[in-house]
Amino acid sequence: MRFVPLVLGSLAVLARFASAEEAPLPPREMPAGDRAALQIPDDVWERALAGTAPSRRPLGMTGDEMRNYSGRDYLMRTVENQFRDARAIPRTTGRITDAMLTVVKAASPGEICMLCWGLTDIPSGRMYAAPTGDEWGIPEIAKGTTPEKALPMLLELESKGADHTAAIRDFAQLPEAVQRFLLRVAIARRLSLPWLRQSIATPADDPKGEGIRKSVTAPWTDEANDQSATLDARCFQWLRDVDRTTVAYGSAIFTSHLKTAFAEISKWLGEDGREELESLGALDFRGLPGLRVFGAKDDVIEAADPLNTQILI
């Protein structure tokens, strides 16, 4: 919220120099209470407009005016709207901040995900119902099924006819709360993965999509001269080609299931589960597709498969 005082202070300076003959405006305090109620006082605003914008239109730029500034291929509508009226920025950013604090306090990854995607102009997953209670959120596993019985059902869905004896045996050694948590994460992966995969066509020479993942993150992970920079020109092509709506929906599905998983495991840990969890010691469980589960203690992990293709727990 640092830019809110900056906006208010800038307008106050403009108002001060709008007319040398006018009496100075009284000092103002930053508004308290609801961030969404942030508003530039009317007298300050009128003085600022008098010195900057002779017309009575909002102080800002229309979409046509912004097109004069090139090099902004990914300018979103939600961002463009903030340039239309400078007076709306404090209220809008305040409202967004309040919404973020609300979902953070609710410990809801799904709602955080949906809120962030909505800010990029892609509302998705609002009506998606995450499993509650002893539901699993997948039709093939009935409500009330124990984790011990649910595991073979899920493994059969993932790889029909394969030998799951070792996975079932190792899974049985884990506390039931941990079993339930891992199954919820695995089910979340199964339900969200088709949507995530549909978001972009995988190249024939990169069937696992490892190159795509590296390229699309390059603008944020690569750097030069102590600042973000990348020589990977493909990343911008991927950003053009990816279907963000399917990514958003897949993300909403995954994080909605995580809310239930985190709530259950947190309750267990808060009661008497932490000591039982620590007693597991070193662990490297790979019985669930796409998951790599480590123990509660430090250990040296060696693997032939890249860790970035798995969900690490």
Question: How many beta-strand segments?
Answer: 5
The ordered string of helix (H) and strand (E) elements is HHHHHHHHHHHEEHHEEE
**How many H/I helices?**
13
- Give the overall pLDDT as a whole number: 78
What would you call the shape? globular
Radius of gyration: 26 Å
Structural class: mainly alpha
Which spans have pLDDT < 50 for at least 5 consecutive residues?
A: 1-8, 14-20
Strand order of the biggest β-sheet: 3-4-5
Largest sheet: 3 strands, mixed
Strand residue percentage: under 5%
Helix content range:
40-55%
First-residue to last-residue Cα separation: 34 Å
What does this protein look like?
- By secondary structure, this protein is mainly α.
- Helix content is 52%, strand content 4%.
- The chain is built from 13 helices and 5 strands.
- The chain has helices at 3-18, 42-52, 63-66, 77-84, 88-105, 109-119, 147-158, 165-171, 176-198, 210-216, 218-221, 234-241, 244-278; strands at residues 223-224, 227-228, 284-285, 291-294, 311-312.
- The strands form 2 sheets. Strands 3-4-5 form a 3-stranded mixed beta sheet.
Set out the fold topology.
Elements: H1 3-18, H2 42-52, H3 63-66, H4 77-84, H5 88-105, H6 109-119, H7 147-158, H8 165-171, H9 176-198, H10 210-216, H11 218-221, E1 223-224, E2 227-228, H12 234-241, H13 244-278, E3 284-285, E4 291-294, E5 311-312
Parallel strand pairs: 4-5
Antiparallel strand pairs: 1-2, 3-4
